Amino acid sequence: MSDPVVDPKVMDEIVSLCKRRGFIFPSSDIYGGLASAWDYGPLGSELKNRVQRFWWREMTQIHENIVGLDASIMMHPRVWEASGHVENFDDLLVEDTVTNERFRFDHLTQEQQESMTSPAGNPLSAPRKFNLMFKTNLGPVEDTASTIFLRPETAQGIYVNFKNVVQTTRVKVPFGIAQVGKAFRNEIVTKNFIFRTCEFEQMEMQYFVHPSEDEKWFDYWREQRMAYYEKLGIRMDRLRWQEHGPDELAHYAKAAYDIEYLFPFGWSELEGVHNRTDFDLSRHSEFSGKDLTYLDDEKKERFLPYIVETSAGLTRSVLMVLADAYEKEQVGENDVRTVLHFHPAVAPITIGVFPLVKKDGLADLAREIERDLREDFSTFYDQGGAIGRRYRRQDEIGTPFCITVDYDTKEDQTVTLRFRDSMEQVRVPVSEIATRIREEIKSYKRTSDS
Ligand code: ATP
């Protein structure tokens, strides 16, 4: 089956919509911005929090035996020696000798790599190694003893807390530890909006298993992670697996697959599922001098667990959710609407509430209904402009449900419930709105396929 067709121009439209409607702004905007750093605005921070919550619920609530953690960004410098990051966390940097533009060597085409020419056709400098970790100093004195790194991944915070978690909870192997947090990489080239940035957020889950069961759990987590994206309402023909070949495998990995999404700029990594073996725990045992083996009480067996990791970017997921939801939809013969088909569970606003007109007590009635719904849903009250325009404003930010209060509401206590995707409208008693919307969120399936 051939890939769906994507249009690279859509990226510009998404970036502009994000700025215009308050999803994502350039960082330090009033100073002209900072290269590829972004701030999440009122709608963007809601969207990001909800995507995070969707993942967190999936991992810690839906799956048994997964507990949460929130480790510090700053860690003991020895952590990064043990993990291999000091020695190995490099990219090969090359420079166009004419324009001085920098590239990641592995991001060039095979032909460019072999002929050592840049995309502009100029000679490239010899590749040199570039460590991606940000260095800083802890404490007032700048000396080598105080040099620390901003964590380039959240995973290590989980490994170094393995013993703490085993000792303080009742978890038994196989079990997982989930964490969401910031990570920092001094990327050679940042691009594609929030896809690749130097400061980003990850959602990682490390699953500790008996060494004899690593392959079984690896397969299990591959299946689970793909099913998660389906639950999130992502179009499945835009997701695929990409296996790491033997020469692409990271130093710690026995097997690795990426989940790739078809972004407007092409297929790119969204998440990695890795079999990390006992590399991490054995290295941290060695470097810390602490015994990190696990004792299986029942079998009286002591062993170093293997780790199956699922590592997704949160900020990258937000871009994927935006790109997947974005549509310019033809309505009738001469109308086009911009709509974001977010899954209702992650939409920044769940319900828009409008009075048909401001007068005759309809505004007060709509306000009252909106205030009640606020207890359980994220709502937005809007009384400005024609009703059709108010619907369109909500479509553009992905609000899945709108409620309109009209003259009939006063008579029979019903309202119009309008669905974003189908634009269908139904009458619903005011007393049943909350239940109906909860059901709609639970059973949501995207209807529009474009
Ligand atoms: P790449 O090879 O593209 O640099 P990676 O394979 O090193 O990425 P991982 O270390 O596996 O990436 O990171 C796990 C996840 O973290 C990625 O799948 C991605 O979603 C996210 N991620 C990694 N680097 C960045 C970044 N610079 N900006 C945003 N998200 C990132």
What report would you give on this structure?
By secondary structure, this protein is α+β, with helices and mostly antiparallel strands. It folds into two domains: 9-76 and 152-322, 2-Layer Sandwich (BirA Bifunctional Protein, domain 2), CATH 3.30.930; 349-442, Rossmann fold, CATH 3.40.50.800. Helices cover 31% and strands 28% of the residues. It contains 14 helices and 23 strands. The strands form seven sheets. A seven-stranded mixed beta sheet has the order 3-9-10-16-13-12-11. The longest helix is centred in the N-terminal third of the chain and has 21 residues, at 42-62. The radius of gyration is 25 Å and the shape is globular. Bound molecules: adenosine-5'-triphosphate. Adenosine-5'-triphosphate is lined by residues 153, 185, 187, 196-197, 200, 202, 269-272, 311-313, 315-316. Adenosine-5'-triphosphate binds next to strand 10, strand 13, strand 16 and helix 10.
* Whole-angstrom Rg: 25 Å
Bound molecules: adenosine-5'-triphosphate
Low-confidence stretches: none
What's the number of extended β-strand segments? 23
Mean pLDDT: 95
Sheet of most strands: 7 strands, mixed
Name the CATH architecture of the largest domain.
2-Layer Sandwich
Count of the separate structural domains: 2
Cα(first) to Cα(last) distance is: 17 Å
Give me the side-by-side strand order of the main sheet: 3-9-10-16-13-12-11
Number of helices: 14
Q: Determine the fraction of residues in helical runs and give it as a percent range.
A: 25-40%
Approximate shape = globular
CATH superfamily of the largest domain: Bira Bifunctional Protein, Domain 2
| Amount of beta strand | 25-35%
Structural class: alpha+beta
CATH topology of the largest domain: BirA Bifunctional Protein, domain 2
